[in-house]
């Protein structure tokens, strides 16, 4: 078995209102950072995994992301596998 590091980036889908992002966007504006907009907040999850190959590692992480790490109704995710 090989050891891999997985990085899962979870974010709200584009059509879902990001309340935290809007709050930060308003705060940035009040601090004179009005050149910044469309703020979106997400999660970055890193984990170590043992698998026979990178394809298997990605499949395991994808299953975990669908079942636990993200809410498939309102969130999307991307996976990066690093050997």
Structure explained in plain terms:
By secondary structure, the chain is α+β, with helices and mostly antiparallel strands. It has one domain: 2-Layer Sandwich (Mth169, Chain: A). It is built from two helices and three strands, in the order E-H-E-H-E. Strands 2-1-3 form a three-stranded antiparallel beta sheet, with helices on one face. It is elongated. The termini are close together. The model has no long low-confidence stretch (mean pLDDT 97).
Quick structural summary:
This protein has 83 residues and is an alpha+beta fold. The chain has 2 helices and 3 strands; from the N terminus they run E-H-E-H-E.
List the helices and strands and how they pair.
Blueprint: E1 2-12, H1 19-30, E2 42-51, H2 54-69, E3 75-82
Antiparallel strand pairs: 1-2, 1-3
In percent, how helical is the residue content?
Answer: 25-40%
What name does CATH use for the topology? Mth169, Chain: A
What would you call the shape? elongated
From the alpha-carbon coordinates, what is the Rg to the nearest angstrom?
Answer: 16 Å
Counting structural domains, the number is 1
Largest sheet: 3 strands, antiparallel
Give the rounded overall mean pLDDT. 97
Q: Give the end-to-end Cα distance, rounded to a whole number of Å.
A: 12 Å
CATH class: Alpha Beta
Looking at CATH, the homologous superfamily is: Phosphoribosylformylglycinamidine synthase subunit PurS
Strand residue percentage: 25-35%
**Helical/strand content category:** alpha+beta
Write down the secondary-structure element order: EHEHE
CATH architecture: 2-Layer Sandwich
């Amino acid at each position: 078995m090989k050891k891999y590091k997985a990085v899962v980036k979870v974010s709200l889908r584009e059509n879902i209102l990001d309340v935290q992002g809007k709050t930060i966007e308003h705060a940035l504006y009040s601090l004179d950072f009005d050149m910044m907009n469309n703020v979106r907040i997400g999660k970055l999850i890193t984990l170590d995994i043992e698998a026979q190959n990178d394809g298997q590692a990605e499949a395991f992480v994808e299953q975990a992301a669908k079942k636990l790490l993200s809410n498939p109704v309102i969130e999307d995710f991307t996976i990066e596998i690093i050997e």
